[in-house]
Amino acid sequence: MSFVTMPPQLRTLQSALGGMVLPLGILMLVAMMVLPLPIMLLDIFFTFNILISLLILMIALHTYRPLDFSSFPSLAFGGDGFAIGVECGIDAHRS
Asked: What is the pTM of this model?
């Protein structure tokens, strides 16, 4: 079995962008709360939120040991943050 190694340029790009995922996600979440978004986009985000919640629930129900799904608190926290952002976006659109 042979393993494919990444070229050094791609590795440096991945390490540079890897540190930017969380700050960009938080920035997009705050922007979603403040800026009025189109109704269609809010519907897509709401549907995506339900799908992610169901996925987390199904994974949690099908794990045999608690340590098999040790990232659950982080995923639950991120999912709640996204849900709050969607709800604030919907409320901002109503007013």
From this structure: 0.67
End-to-end CA distance of the chain: 59
Dihedral over alpha carbons 33, 39, 41, 45 (to 10 degrees):
70
Separation of alpha carbons 49 and 46, rounded Å:
5
Q: Looking at residue 66, what is its pLDDT? A: 80
Map tokens 């790009």 to a residue: 13
Query: Inter-axis angle of helices 39-61 and 72-94, to 10 degrees?
Result: 160
Summarised one tens digit per residue, pLDDT across range 23-50 is: 888 888 888 888 888 889 888 988 988 9
CB-count burial class (<10 Å; 0-12, 13-18, 19+) for 89: buried
